[in-house]
Design brief:
With about 325 residues, the protein is α/β, with parallel strands linked by helices. Strand 2, helix 7 and strand 3 form a beta-alpha-beta unit. It has an 8-stranded mixed β-sheet with strand order 3-2-4-1-5-6-7-8, with helices on both faces. Helix 3 packs antiparallel against helix 4. The longest helix has 18 residues. It contains 12 helices and 8 strands. Helices cover about 50% and strands about 10% of the residues.
């Protein structure tokens, strides 16, 4: 068993390296230019580094925090040469991800008697329903009994897509007619899941940022009705963001964290984009752990996020 476990880990690392390839190439080429011709880290190198991080979609606030930390290390150590900069930068980024809680503790480690309920939020087009389907496949492969709730009743295609995933993965999907009360669907899903001894429940919600007050009211209502069945529900409110949108993902995170208590992040579509730095900035600015990252179209391309492996892939180590 250990051999297959190691083989699976190796495959995951290869998928991560391949998925972050464009981000890594862009990041490392900018880093090389930032220190070109320099023997030590000086103000010019720091200015170049600041530009590198901002153009890599790390975000202004997080960039300034990283630069400040590096300045303090240079002052403390008196001399940091340009060859050491990538190690220092790597350590500081990893430290930020650790401080934001970006190391897991989720449905995988849950041991309660009631189902572990994940309410999934995010705008249309970010890969929300696909992420739910891939999570269902992942949990089922881990031996868990999974239920899906089609509480995005605003869009018929959302229910159809979730039902398709349910059939593909082999897990039940609880749904109602289009336009039905989303809270009613959530209540039925959690009730059925509890009655049938399910381990994990994934609730899909409407992917629209209509008016924040309406969004807040809708999500609050869903939370409240689920608590009538499972007092701890939702155990996790997972916000799905499209990593390829860069700064738009920051804005969506800002809107959803105002509308509800987001407790984890799933950042999708990191393959094929050079904007992978968004993972660092969003997790730092909102102090919300990144739980999963999407690195491709395949069912197995949704990975549990591990900060050290992420940083190693980013720096090509």
């Amino acid at each position: 068993m250990a051999f297959f476990g190691l083989f699976g880990k190796k495959e995951e690392k290869e998928t991560l390296d391949k998925g972050l390839e464009k981000t890594k190439e862009s990041f490392l080429s900018k880093l090389t230019r930032a220190v070109a011709g320099k023997s030590k880290v000086d103000d010019e190198v720091l200015d170049n580094l600041e530009e590198l991080l901002i153009t890599s979609d790390v975000g202004v606030e997080t960039t300034l925090k990283i630069i400040d930390r590096i300045e303090r290390r240079v002052a403390r150590d008196k001399y940091v040469n340009s060859e050491e900069l990538d190690l220092v930068l790597r350590e500081e980024i990893e430290a930020l991800l650790q401080e934001s809680g970006s190391e897991n503790g989720s449905a995988e480690s849950y041991e309660g008697s009631d189902p572990y309920v994940i309410m999934v939020v995010g705008v249309n087009g970010v890969g929300k329903t696909t992420t739910i389907g891939k999570l269902a496949a992942k949990f089922k492969a881990d031996g868990k009994k999974v239920y899906l709730g089609a509480a995005d009743t605003f869009r018929a295609a959302a229910t159809e897509q979730l039902v398709s995933w349910g059939e593909r993965v082999g897990v039940p999907v609880i749904k109602q007619e289009m336009g039905a009360d989303p809270a009613s669907v959530a209540f039925d899903t959690v009730s059925s899941a509890k009655a049938n001894g399910a381990d994990v429940v994934l609730i899909d919600t409407a992917g629209r940022l209509h008016n924040k007050v309406n969004l807040m009211n809708e999500l609050t209502k869903i939370r409240n009705v689920m608590k009538k069945v499972v007092p701890t529900a939702p155990n996790d409110v997972m916000l799905v963001l499209d990593g390829s949108t860069g700064q738009n993902a920051f804005e969506q995170a800002k809107q959803f964290t105002k509308a509800t208590e987001v407790s984890s992040l799933a950042i999708t579509k990191l393959d094929g984009t050079a904007k992978g730095g968004v993972v660092i900035g969003i997790s730092d600015q909102f102090q919300i752990p990144v739980r999963y990252i999407g690195l491709g179209e395949g069912v197995d391309d949704l990975q549990v996020f591990h900060r050290r492996e992420f940083v190693e892939s980013l720096f090509g180590k």
